[in-house]
# Entry
Amino acid sequence: MSRAIALAAVFVTTALSLASPAATTPATPNGASGVYDIQPRNDHSVELPHRKLYLAFEGDDVTGYYDNAYPQPADADVDDTCRFFLSGKQTAPATVTLSADYPGDGVASDIVLSKRPDGAWLVTVKGTHADASRLPNCSVPSLISGDVVKLASARPWRIVGRASKPTVPLYSEPSTDKKTKGYLVDLDPVAIQTIQGEWTQIDYLAKDHELVRWVKSTDVYYYLER
# Structure
């Protein structure tokens, strides 16, 4: 599936206004925003090493994005565009409960992360579909119960959202005269770091490295399940 097709759907979830999220005290210190690696495993004898889970903790609210970004061999029977958004809560000191959704798919699944003594998180998929393992926007799930995720790179992310317009210009600084040649397109995943009125500082998540830029606050939505 091409990037354009993968990003063309409309993400069906509750879109909140871009007022700055209320400052809250985290329920526990266990949640850390950043890039999480997923322990490699094989599917149909093909290793899946490139899966990433992006999580942002804001108080007890947790948002995220899952991406199996690298195509697999055609005969591997693995969806090379398994991507979806996550929103939920840190419901206990060692438990995060999330809903997984992607626009136009019609599938909603629950994912529970349970903290292990070694600091990693154990994944449990609780699909609401007849096929309990099914995930949105994944013809063959590449995230399953028993997967282990571990923080690889901490980031100053407050919440995961998305670009909300066909074209979203990027700025090097929060000023109209600092526009760059770069841009995002609708549904591109971003992590919000700072909101300053009409400006929002974001980190574009679909890169192998940090890409921190500024966008107009009206060009970004973020999602929370409350």
User: Anything to note?
Assistant: Residues 1-29 have pLDDT under 50 and may be disordered. The CA atoms of residues 152 and 202 lie 19 Å apart.
